[in-house]
From TrEMBL:
<dbReference type="GO" id="GO:0045892">
    <property type="term" value="P:negative regulation of DNA-templated transcription"/>
</dbReference>
<dbReference type="GO" id="GO:0003677">
    <property type="term" value="F:DNA binding"/>
</dbReference>
<dbReference type="InterPro" id="IPR036390">
    <property type="entry name" value="WH_DNA-bd_sf"/>
</dbReference>
<comment type="function">
    <text>Negative regulator of class I heat shock genes (grpE-dnaK-dnaJ and groELS operons). Prevents heat-shock induction of these operons.</text>
</comment>
<dbReference type="InterPro" id="IPR036388">
    <property type="entry name" value="WH-like_DNA-bd_sf"/>
</dbReference>
<keyword id="KW-0804">Transcription</keyword>
<dbReference type="InterPro" id="IPR021153">
    <property type="entry name" value="HrcA_C"/>
</dbReference>
<keyword id="KW-0678">Repressor</keyword>
<dbReference type="InterPro" id="IPR002571">
    <property type="entry name" value="HrcA"/>
</dbReference>
<feature type="domain" description="Heat-inducible transcription repressor HrcA C-terminal">
    <location>
        <begin position="114"/>
        <end position="336"/>
    </location>
</feature>
<keyword id="KW-0346">Stress response</keyword>
<keyword id="KW-0805">Transcription regulation</keyword>
<protein>
    <recommendedName>
        <fullName>Heat-inducible transcription repressor HrcA</fullName>
    </recommendedName>
</protein>
<dbReference type="InterPro" id="IPR023120">
    <property type="entry name" value="WHTH_transcript_rep_HrcA_IDD"/>
</dbReference>
<dbReference type="InterPro" id="IPR029016">
    <property type="entry name" value="GAF-like_dom_sf"/>
</dbReference>
<comment type="similarity">
    <text>Belongs to the HrcA family.</text>
</comment>
<dbReference type="Pfam" id="PF01628">
    <property type="entry name" value="HrcA"/>
</dbReference>
Amino acid sequence: MSDGPKILSEMNDRSREVFRRVVEGYLASGDPVGSRTLTRSMSEKVSAATVRNVMQDLEYLGLLDSPHVSAGRIPTQLGLRMFVDGLLEVGAVAAEDREKIDATLGSNRQDVTSLLDRVGATLSGITRGASLVLAPKHEAPIRHIEFVSLAADRALVVLVFADGHVENRVFTPPPGQTASSMREAANFLNALAEGKTLSELRQTIVQEMSRRRQEIDALAHALVESGLALWENPGEQTERLIVRGRSNLIDGSTEAQDFERIRSLFDDLERKRDIADFLELAESGEGVRIFIGSENKLFSLSGSSLVVSPYMNADRKIIGAVGVIGPTRLNYGRIVPIVDYTAQLVGRLVSDRGKG
């Protein structure tokens, strides 16, 4: 797929024109485009046989396909990708479409969920595709956190915010986590969560880890200096302190107590590292609020495509996304600017309401 621009730049003008006209013809009608049709619309006078030869070359490159023997050609998925990346001419949003989008977002109702629902419905109506609207993630103090295991590689974090908002996010937990370790992580976090947002909570854990690290280093320094211990894999996740000549350590001595203290600090650091991983993954996890659309498997089907644009808050931070899902035979030139325009508008509106 990354070779697309290279193939395009190596094509001569005739090949590029044949390719563009086949794709545009297919996107407009949904039917294969034949050489005779192309001969009539080409900018230079060429025979149907010449056009057929060019189409065969494009088929050999994997850009076109012939669905039936002796029929016309349609673009392959690679061909569509290359057309969208290199040849697509994007128009402006039609005045009629813009009015419909503006009318949807112009309502004075303050409820963001209702706003995004209406955006989804309007996008579906205008584009005749399914629409996808990802809501902004909530950033407010947390009252309670719960982790729920869904499968070996999928977990759900349920966030109950102090303002009563409840949000579910799906994420992939760190390897080797069990239902009981998730419960333990949730209990630990709930004890610290009061009045903190998710990002502030993660910052608290990171600071705790830094303190543990300093304590371990201070305790271990004297032991390493005296030759009683040495570091293995220093600074890495697999690091450990190896004791030399354990028989030289008399139970109850200062060194023995230091080693015991270091061991418990290491255990604590490891536990906090896992919890920090949980929080980071939960923070970047998918918002499960998909208003209109379908499951992700839809996007991987060869017969469908997704035009999506993120929207940002006032700090230029991506907080959600707006998109249209439809067959690969979408009118990209029309839909791309519609999605882009809607995303920019939603970003501005959500930011304005956040200030209120």
